[in-house]
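Annotators were shown the component list below and the corresponding predicted structure, then asked to write short factual statements about the assembly.
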Amino acid sequence: MRNLSASTALGLGCIAFALILAFIWIPLDVETWLVERKRGRYIVGDSLAPTLAAAFILLAGVMLWFERRSRDPRPTRQNLTFIGAISFFGLVGILLMRWSGPVVTSVFGAEEYRLLRDTAPWKYIGFVLGGSTMVFCIVSFVEQRVSWRAFWVALAAVVGIIALYDLPFDDVLLPPNGDV
Amino acid sequence: MRKLLKSAVVAAAVIGTSTATLAEDWAPPGPIKMVIAFAAGGGADTQARLIAEELEATQGWKVIPEQVTGKGGLNAVNAVKDAPADGTTIAMIVTSSLGYSMVTAKAGSPQDVTPITTTAGTQMAVVARADKGWSTLGDVIEAAKGGEDIRFGVMSPALGDIAYLVGKENGVDFNIISVKGGKAVMNGLNAGDMDVGFGAGIQAKAVAAGDMVELASARSEPLINSPEAPLLSEYGVNFVSELAFLFAGPKDMDPVARAAIASAIAEVATQEGGKANAFLTKGFGGAMIIAGEELEAVVQKGFESSGALAAAAAE
Amino acid sequence: MADLGTFDYVWLGILAVFQGPEAFSLLGVSVSITVMMVAFGLILGIVVGATPGLGGVIAMAISLPILISIFGFNADALLPVMGFLIGVMKGSTVGGAVPAILFNTPGTPDAYMTTLDGYPMAQSGKARKALKISHFSSVTGDTFSDVVLIVCAPFLAILVEAHLDLPEKTALLILSLSFIAAVVGGSAAKGLLSCGLGLLAVYIGTGEDFYPRLSFGTAALSDGIPITAAVIGVLVIGAIFSELENLWAQKRQTGAIQVAKEEGDQRLHWADIRRIFPYIGRSALIGTTIGALPGVGSTLAATIGYATSKRLYTKTKKPGDPAFGQGAPEGIAATEAANSSVSGANLIPVLSLGIPGNTAAVFLILAAESIGGFNPGPAVFQFSSDLNPELVIAFGLFTTMILANLLNWTVGGVFMRSLGVLVRIPKQYLLPVVLLLTLASLYVQETSMSAIWFAFGFGILGYFMMRFAISPLPFVIGFILGGRIEDTARQAFSATGGDPWFLFKSPIAAMFMLCALAVIFVSLRKPKGDMP
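Structure shown to annotators:
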C-alpha cells in the first residue's frame, strides 16, 4: 500500500476544482458563453478567460502527478493550528474595527456614526479597539504568554499609525470610516 | 456650442425661490461621499477630484472621493441609489450610465437616482491617424469597399453599435474592437492596431498638431476643432453620442441638498481661474451646466433613444 | 511647439526630475521634491533591508498609499512616488547584506548567499571591510544593470510596437505567463497552479457583460477583487504569517547578540577592488541577463553568480587565501553583484512590454495604475513630435534610477554600515505591528472594509501556498496580466473578424505559442532542486 503524497492529493484537488469550475461554476455563473454573436459577428464571451484559468489549474493538477520531486511539502497539523488561531484573531480584530464605533455611538453619541465618522474621538474607536486587539492577541499567541509589554506595544502601534496617517493628512480616513 | 451658464443663473432658473434660499444655508450633516465611476488618473476622474477639492475649499464641506468603476457606470449607480438621501452621498457618472448601460443591462430606470448637475460635454468624433490619408469618414468607407479590412476602435457598447450601423448603412463590415477608455483607442490608433476609432475629446492635442484628423462628428452638431467634418447623418446614421458628465444622488434626494450641491458644483466648474474650470476647458471644451428638470428631461431622452439604438444594432 | 526629437525627450525627463516642484533649497541650490523622495526612499530601503523580517516589498506596500495621499492622483505624482519606490528597491538590496554579514541572518531572501562568506569575514574581525565590499559590488552591479535597461527598453518597445499586431501581443503575453509559471519556484506544476489561481481571482466580477461573472450574485464580489488587496494579501501578509509561525514554532528568544571585534585593516584598497572586479563583472552580466527574463528572481541570479565564481576562484586562488564559504571577499562580491544587477534589468519587460518580472516591478505597476496617467508598456515609447508625457515620465524614471545609484555610491555605504543595531528589534513585536500597518495602508488607499477582508483572506491563501511550496509570485503576475490578456485576446479576435485561429495564423504568434508550450513541457521533464 502506498501513502497518498501531498503533491498527488493536491493534484487531485486541482483537477476536481478545475472540472467543477469549467463545467459547473462558469456555465451557471457567467452570462455569456465562450463566444457570443453580436452585431453579426462572433466576439469573445465572458466565459473564455475563466475557462483558460481552469485549463491552467487542470494542467497543473495533471502535471503534479507526473512531476519528479525530491520533497513533498504539505501543511502539518501544527500549521493548521497556527493559521486557525491567527485567522480567529484577525476576524475578531476586523469585526471590532468595523462595528465597535457604530455600537458605542448608538449608545452614547448624539448622531449616527455615519455622520460622526470624521469627528474625534468617535472616529478612532474602531481602529484603536480592533487594531490593538489584533496586535495584542497575535503577539501574546506567538510568545505563548500574556504580558504588559505586548499590551503597550499594541497600544503604541495603534497610536503610532494614527499619528502617521490621520494627523498629518486631512483627507485620509482610517478603517472603517471610509465606507460606513 | 452650448452656452456656459453661470452658477447664479442656474440657481435662479432651475430651482424654486424658496428652495434656493434654503439651499444657500444648506450644509451637509456629515462628510460627503463622492463615488467616482471612472478609473483613477483618467480625465473624468481628475475632473471629479478637482471638483471635490474645490468644493472643500469654497464651501468648507468635507468630500471623500471613492472609486467604484465598471459596468458602464452601473456599479457606481448601485452604490448610491439606496444611500441616505440627505446629500451625504453623490456619484460622478456619465449620461450613458443612466441611458444605454441601464437599457442594455435591463437594470432599472433613470428615476433610480436623482440627477444633480452636468459638468461638461464631450466632443465625440471619428478619428484616424493623419498618415492614413483620409479626410472624411467617406474615405474610410471607400477604402473598406475597396477590400481593405478596417478596424474600428470603440470604448463603449453604444459607440460599437453606432460604428456597426455606419458600416451597415453603407454596405461595409468593420472589425469593431472594444477597448476600455478613450486613451486605449488613441494608443491603438498610434500603434497601428486600429485604423479608425472614437475620441471624446482626448484627440484635441493630436488634431491640433496635425498627427490625427477628425473624420466625422458623432454629435448632432459640428465639432469645435474640425467644424468641416461631416455629421454621421450624412452617412445614413441618425444616432449620435452626446455624452455629458454628471453628478447624481440617491433616489428621492432632499431637494434642498440637491439644489445646494448643484449650485456649488456649477460655481466651481465655471469659476474662471479655478483648477476645475481650467481642466474642463482644456479637456472637454469648457464647462457645461445643465441641472434640475432640464437635466431630468435630457437624461430621460437619452434613456429612450438608447433603446432605439440598441434595437437598431441588434437587427 | 517645435518637433521633439529623442534627445529632447531625454532632456525633458531629466528636467522633470530636477526642476519639479521645489522641496527646499540647499546652499542656494533648489532641491526638487522628486530628488528628495528618491533619497528618502533609498534611506528607508536600506533601513528595512537591514531589518530582518522586513524588506523592500513590505516597505513599498505600506508607503504607496501614504505617498498617494500626499501627492494625489495626477501625473505630477508619478515621478516622486515611483522615484521613492525605486529608492526603496535599490536601498533594500544594499541593506539586506548588513545583518547577513554581521549576524548571519539574511535581511532579505536574496542576501542568503552573502552570509556564506560575509559572516566568516565578520567573525574574523573584518566586518567593516565585508560591508564595504558588499556595498561596492552591489552598487556596481546595479548601475551596470540600469545602463542596460536604459539602452534596451526603448528599442525593445519600439520593436514590439512596430512588428507585433494584436494577435502577436496576445501570444507574447501568454508566453510570458507560462514562462513565469514554469521558472519561478521549484515546480512548474505548482507555478502553473499559482498562475491559474491568480487568473481566476482577477476574472471574478470583471468582464464585459453587465452581470459580474463568477460573483454568485453577491454584492461583495460584483466589483471584482481590488488589485492591491490581492497583491498585498498573497505577497506581504502571507509572508508575515509564515514568518510569525516560525517564531511561534520555535518560541525562542532572540537571545544575546554576539558582536565580533574588529581587527586589522578595514579599508577597501584599489588592490581589493582590482581583485574582486572580475567577479563583479561576471556576476553583473549573469544577473542582468537573468533579470531581463520576467519572473526569474534575484535568488537564482545570486546562486548562479556564486557558483560560477566559486568554480573560477578554486582554480585561480593563491594558497593561503580563504576558500569560498570561509570568508572570501570574492564570494561576497559575486553574490551581491549578481542579485543587485537583477533589479534594473527586471524593469526591461515592465517598461517595454508592461509585463512585471518581479515583486518590485509589481509595485511600480501598482503605483502607475493607482495614480494613473502612465501605463507601462510599448505605447510609452512613442517618440511623437507633439509632447508625449508618458515618454517624459519614462526618461524621468531612468533619471531617478541614476540618481538613486549616485546617492547609493556616496551616502548609501556610510549609512548602511551604521545599521547593525536594527537586528535587535524583536520580530514578534515588529511583525504584528507591520501587519496592522499594512492593513491600515491598504484601507487608506481603497477606503473599503471589503479590501481588508480580501487582503486577510488572500494572506491566508498565500500562507497555504507557501506551506505547499507554491510560489506566490506567479499568482500575483497572473492577477496583474490576466485582465490584459483577456482584453488583448478580445481585441485580436475582433480585429481578425472573429478568426478562431488568430493565435496561430501569423508566424510570430504561432512561434510564441509553441515556445509557451515548449517552456512548460521542458520544465516538466527536467528535475529541479527545491529552490526557495
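Statements collected:
1. The longest strand of chain B covers residues 113-121.
2. Chain B has twelve helices and ten strands.
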